Amino acid sequence: MKIKNIGWIGLGKMGIPMAQKLINVGYAVTVYNRSKAKIEALSSAGASTAESPVQLVPQSEVIFLMVSDDQATREIFTGETGLLNAPVSGKIFVNMSTVSPGISQEMARMCREKQSFYLDAPVSGSVKQAEEGQLVIMVGSEEAIFHQVKPLLDQLGKLTLRVGETGAGNSAKLAINTLLGFYAQGLAEAVIFAQQHGIQTQDLLTLIGNSALGNIFTKIKGEAIVANNFQPAFALKHIAKDLRLAQQEGSHTPLAEVVQNTFQQAESTLGEEDVMAIIKHLNPINESAATN
Ligand code: NAP
């Protein structure tokens, strides 16, 4: 049976464009967000609204979550007005947030007890890729339920790959974001080193962009460095959270230890800025040198 009715929980930087995408391709979408102000954009685009997670369940066949972390996931499933307080038999929950494999396994178990299904389906890519339906989606779930949901996920991403059972999507995502931490800190350190030796930042970035190391991350974050603009596309607090999760999952390799420490130290002052604001932490006496 073709899925038509979608529930969407979490209208942050990623949730808004992703839910919008599903509305654009014709799904009936009901949205919920903890703070009400963010609902307006989607309701004026044609979404129905729910006052709580539990109220969103009856009219939704598949319910997506795109929220911050483990704690948000737990509250949405098990809180006073949480999803699992509704009759959920046959419902499919797809958690696209970056969370721990452990919380996914726990929620999947609770869903199974109520004859419903849980998939972890975190994403790689940021706001731009979400707007363009070009995310990379990694899924942990039973195979049969994956095939039911894949056509929906394919509307949001350019690649949807099942990597294993529940929690496997989360593990893959933590591996990718560990690499993202290396890239961000590595790019920042390369720029700082070049600046210290009189190289124009734009020149260095042009060289990197035309070398084997050029990639979309270096391009977008290089532009942010040159503009000295660290408005968050991917907030630094989220990569700090992801590196912490990876650490809890046993990531203790040499580089991982370094980036975990760097981002934890930066989180209290730069957490609300973009991940690339790590350059300010690494080079605090020369904040504006990025524009040189
Ligand atoms: P965000 O802009 O900070 O939005 C977070 C969302 O979670 C908001 O809707 C927020 O509600 C909700 N939330 C937080 N705590 C909650 C709670 N206790 N109960 C209910 N709702 C809660 O985050 P984002 O950038 O969209 O990222 C969402 C997830 O995707 C994160 O796990 C992040 O690591 C991951 N991710 C982000 C990017 C990116 O580039 N931004 C890329 C890939 C993956 P309020 O509006 O009420 O605060």
TrEMBL record:
The keyword Ribonucleoprotein does not apply. GO terms for molecular function: 3-hydroxyisobutyrate dehydrogenase activity; NAD binding; NADP binding. The keyword Hydrolase does not apply. The active site is at K173. Residues 167-282 form the 3-hydroxyisobutyrate dehydrogenase-like NAD-binding domain. Its EC number is 1.1.1.31. Gene3D superfamilies: N-(1-d-carboxylethyl)-l-norvaline Dehydrogenase, domain 2, NAD(P)-binding Rossmann-like Domain. Keywords: NAD, Oxidoreductase. Residues 5-160 form the 6-phosphogluconate dehydrogenase NADP-binding domain. InterPro entries: 6-PGluconate_DH-like_C_sf, 6PGD_dom2, 6PGDH_NADP-bd, HIBADH-like_NADP-bd, HIBADH-related, HIBADH-related_NP60_sf, NAD(P)-bd_dom_sf. This is 3-hydroxyisobutyrate dehydrogenase. It comes from Adhaeribacter pallidiroseus.
